[in-house]
Specification:
alpha+beta, Immunoglobulin-like, Rossmann fold
Length: about 475
């Protein structure tokens, strides 16, 4: 700090572009402190104004005296700040004999502040933003990012770039590009009318073990995420999670459901937020040489993601099967925009309780016909009808005690069902998989909403009801 400073100096407090998490009543608080330098006695005063007009945000946030101490230090808290922004925080040093106030000695300021919702970005490369190619997804005032440099800035792609990073734990080996979350934040800001802050912690290629302190090993990305949450105030609205590709192998995939549930529990404990929302993305397809183990592992992880949204309160999941890729495994910018929209709708519906139709079609029942030659799949919610735009596509697989049951055709009766017509009767206990494999064929969708079904794996087929 230069030694020629005069007036009110802010040493601790909010930084330019910072968004703080609003409380349950829609308010936030800015705490700040510093030094004052002047001849004689004076009082530090603080206020909060609208950035674009200079009008005080509220009467109680107009010029108010800070705790001004004789030792040359001061402290103040601007409480009950309503959700919104952008705000400018101003300070001044008011001499004892200055009655008018407007010609008080100067003080430090902080610009572009907001009170709204903070969302943590976590996961691996599709969360870090490896989608490449042109995209129209510009920055916007009121959508700000806590960068890897541990400074606040206007959010812009790439969100996970590592200039001046303060934590090497999630430093990418190369420069990332486009991710879903700027569009996610834009839609939330429009719907909620308050600023959105993004806290970037993801890392390409990261396995669940790095995020889960309940597993053996060094959960370095969990530690980094908790560290970043503390730096932005200790409270966030939720976590945006896109991960699982690194856990789709035969050793990790079968236990993904239990391990991810444990990870979410650890995140909630570390943030002292038992109901911390987690918006997850079901794994997209991947282009690779087909083999049984990768196909089964990817399907098992998708099933875990589907089941967790049912079994653990506060977890939501969005589908991805119709989102294009920019290479063999990374979602394209166009696909990211679609994922960002679906995550925003999930946040509005599941977190904010808005009357919004966000749930994807999910398998409810699989029923074997009396002759064992077809299986009736019923989905919900479906607002129109289930159908596949690729008329001959078969994204399903049936297995019974004799092995794979060949599917002859997939029929769509024009309602919430798909009917699998088999080439031989299913024998004994049978299970059905949907969106099976690393790169499944096109899946059916709710036609009115253009929303594909969630992938599923190992769902038991129920016998036909007895008449």
């Amino acid at each position: 700090m230069p030694d020629n400073q005069v007036g009110a100096i802010i040493d601790e407090g909010p930084s330019d572009w910072q968004i703080i998490q609003r409380d349950a009543d829609g308010f936030g608080a800015f705490a700040l402190s510093g030094r004052w330098v002047a001849e004689g006695q004076a009082t530090v005063q603080v206020r909060l104004v609208a950035q674009d007009t200079g009008v005080p945000v509220a009467a109680h946030l107009d010029w108010a005296a800070a705790d001004t101490r004789p030792d040359g230090t001061w402290a103040a808290t601007l409480a009950d700040v309503p959700a919104g922004g952008l705000y400018r925080l101003e300070t001044r040093l008011n001499p004892k004999d200055n009655l008018a106030g407007e010609w008080s000695t100067r003080g430090d300021m902080r610009h572009f502040l907001g009170v709204g919702d903070l969302w943590v970005i976590a996961g691996q490369s599709n969360s870090a933003g490896y989608g490449r190619g042109p995209h129209a997804d510009p920055p916007e005032l009121g959508i700000h990012l806590f960068r890897n440099s541990e400074t606040w800035a206007l959010a812009s792609h790439p969100l996970n770039e590592s200039t001046d990073t303060r934590h090497a734990a999630n430093r990418e080996g190369g420069n990332p590009a486009h991710s879903p979350y700027l569009h996610f934040a834009r839609l939330l800001k429009q719907a909620l009318g308050c600023p959105i802050g993004l806290v970037q912690t993801s890392l390409g290629g990261s396995p669940l073990t790095a995020w889960n302190p309940t597993e053996p090993g060094d959960a370095v990305l969990f530690d980094n995420m908790v560290h970043c949450i503390k730096l932005v105030g200790g409270r966030v609205r939720g976590i945006l999670w896109y991960q699982g590709e690194s856990d789709a192998g035969p050793a990790e995939a079968p236990s993904y459901e239990e391990r991810f549930a444990n990870a979410v529990g650890a995140w909630r404990a570390a943030t002292e937020s038992p109901g911390l929302p987690v918006i997850t993305v079901q794994l997209n397809r991947v282009y690779q040489d087909p083999s049984e183990e990768p196909d089964r592992g990817w399907s098992q992880v998708r099933e875990a993601q589907r089941r967790l949204a049912k079994s653990v309160p506060g977890i939501a999941v969005v589908p991805t099967f119709d989102c294009g890729l920019t290479d063999g495994i990374h979602t394209s910018p166009g696909g990211n925009m679609l994922i960002g929209e679906r995550m925003a709708r999930a946040a509005l519906g599941a977190v904010h309780g808005k009357p919004i139709d966000y749930l994807p079609p999910d398998l409810q029942t699989a029923t074997l016909a009396p002759n064992a030659m077809s299986i009736d799949l019923a989905f919900a919610p479906v607002t129109s009808r289930m159908e596949c735009i690729a008329l001959l596509a078969n994204a399903f697989r049936v297995e019974d005690e004799s092995g794979i049951v060949p599917i002859d055709t997939v029929a769509y009766p024009g309602d919430n069902r798909a009917v699998l017509r088999l080439r031989r009767p299913a024998v004994g206990p049978a299970v059905v998989h949907g969106g099976y494999g690393a790169n499944p064929q096109p899946v059916p969708m709710d036609v009115e909403r253009i929303l594909p079904m969630l992938g599923f794996y190992g769902v038991p087929v129920q016998p036909a009801p007895q008449e």
